[in-house]
Amino acid sequence: MPQKKPEKLIEENDVRIDGRKLDELRPVKIEVGVLANADGSAYIEQGKNKILAAVYGPKEVHPRHLALPDRAVLRCRYHMAPFSVEERKSPAPSRREIELSKVIREALEPSVFVEYYPRTSIDIFIEVLQADGGTRCAGLTVASLALADGGIPMRDLVVACAAGKVDGRFVLDLSDLEDKGGEADVPLALMPNLNAITLLQMDGSLMIDEFEKVVNLALDGCRRLYTFQKEALKLKYIAVKEAVEE
Amino acid sequence: MPLFYERKQLVTPGDLLAEGDYMTGDNTYKDDDKIYASRVGLVDYEDRKVYVVALKAFYIPSVGDTVIGKVVELGTSGWTIDVNAPYLAMLQASDVMDRPFRPRTSDLPSIFDVGDVIIAKIVAYNRTRDPLLTVREPGLGKIMRGTLVKITPTKIPRVIGRKGSMVSMIKRETECQITIGQNGLILISGKTPEDERLAVMALHKIEEESHTSGLTDRVTEMLRKKKEGVEHAQKKN
Questions:
Q1: Contact indicator for B95, B136 with CB cutoff of 8 Å
Q2: Residues of chain B with pLDDT under 50
């Protein structure tokens, strides 16, 4: 179903193309521990995005020579399924996917206690099943949950959200259409309890004062997403507890 | 010097647990004088120590632990064993043999072959060295029969129970022999497959509901109910 490029992305009454308000997140659904064979796993639906993350490790490194004597190596693969976008995407990792893998790895690394497990590797796999803008952020959010589900010691969860400028207005959590048709997109990842930013990128151009507003909007989005993230992580255990202690 | 959670409350990584003059216990870390959780689990306090009982974690070898592992590789002078940890363990051939070990004349596969499951004890391990195992103690060695169950290693203390109350209850109710590996693998050998199946069910129940209270009673109840069902079915036949 090809999407037509609309004339206007934001109506006069501040309603966005998908019916959201300017500072509204897309509906989120998160589930933790969805894969039996992975050490840790999580699944997220954010608007039309559908992303699965799996974590394996810590385990011996293959190939051996990549092992580090003082800490674990964190490896990350961000991959989009061929059917995740409108035009079939080649399953081979593209330039963009390789870059996103690196960016996501670097955003997660400060949250993980890699120095606890020298000579091992922790492997993260992020599989985008359906994409609609903001997959790097949603991918980061689930990957962090998969790490926590795998029992890997972490300083904090990492939660990511984008904000940007579309039709001259500042908006939160851009969809694919807004990303492509807008003026700027700023993805941001945050460790909420430590109040530390682990990823900050910008696509497009903004004035300095505009940039500050957009960053604050994205930070606010991250904090709101964090409550969903945390709830999902606890849900697995709370459900069991309530079932037996009724 | 406040504490931010009640005992046995569920926390996630990054949750601020305490501030001030406290000590860090398991699954927590300190930044300035703030203590945060580093794993999903239940908080608890002991004097000035703050710790988290993890609900899921992997096994980290520790000297003196009895573990159950699988032979994954045959070397020239020993075996490589998977003990369900981030590191592969080594078992030296000289450890198994009474006479001096000669690589040319000794037939390693006839002692342990790839795929064999063994009970062993960890004799050495540190950050720079892979764990070293021994089987030179009574009760250790190759496993010939029984059922293996794998559970999260952090729940092993729950399976054992206070002074072994939980395992001894399961042993009594199912009439099975149970060997617990600290690495999360448990060997069950009973007189009949039905007995073993009962014990497996009990262990899975403990793993799933480890963070709830009154568990021993609930497991006992479940086992008694299931046992009646089995006996009933056998009478019918």
A1: yes
A2: none
Share of chain B above pLDDT 90, in %: 67
Pairing of strands B129-134, B117-126: antiparallel
The answer to the question of residue A19 being in a domain is: no
Reported as a single tens digit per residue, the pLDDT across B201-228 is 999 999 988 888 888 889 999 998 888 8
The token pair at B227 is 């046992």
B235/A237 Cα distance (integer angstroms): 39
Look at chain A and report how many structural domains it folds into.
Answer: 1
- Do the domain assignments include residue A171? yes
pLDDT at res. A71: 95
Nearest one of A141, A233, A127 to A187, comparing CA atoms: A141
Residue A199 near residue A143, CB atoms below 8 Å: no
> Does residue A184 have a pLDDT over 90?
yes
- The tokens for A32 are 């933790």
- Per-residue exposure over A111-149, b if at least 16 CB sit within 10 Å of its own CB, e if not: bbbbebbbbbbbbbbbbbebbbbbbbbbbbbbbbbbbbb
Amino acid at A199: L
Q: Which residues pair with B41 in a beta bridge?
A: B11, B54
In a domain? residue A18: no
In a domain, residue A157? The reply is: yes
Q: What's the one-letter identity of residue A228?
A: F
- Going by C-alpha positions, the residue among A150, A143, A229, A159 that lies closest to residue B55 is A150
CATH of the domain at A133: 3.30.230.70
A151 contacts B54? CB cut-off 8 A: yes
Range of the domain at A79: 28-244
Chain B residues within 8 Å of chain A (Cβ atoms): 10, 12-16, 27, 29, 31, 36, 38-40, 54-58, 86-88, 127-128, 152, 154, 208-209, 211-214, 218
Beta carbons of A56 and A123 less than 8 angstroms apart: yes
Task: Residue B184: list chain A partners with CB under 8 A.
Answer: none
Radius of gyration (Cα) for chain A, nearest Å? 18
Euclidean distance between CA atoms A11 and A8, whole angstroms: 7
Task: Report the residue of chain A nearest B57, measured CA to CA.
Answer: A151
Give me A212's structure tokens: 């500050």
Domains and CATH numbers, chain B: 10-54 (2.40.50.100), 66-142 (2.40.50.140), 147-231 (3.30.1370.10)
Taking the C-alpha atoms of residue A168 and residue A6, their distance in angstroms, rounded to an integer, is 16
Please, what is the average pLDDT of chain A?
Answer: 94
Place of tokens 């909420």: A192
Give the CA count within 13 Å in the CB-facing half-sphere of B146.
23
Cα separation of A118 and A121, whole Å? 8
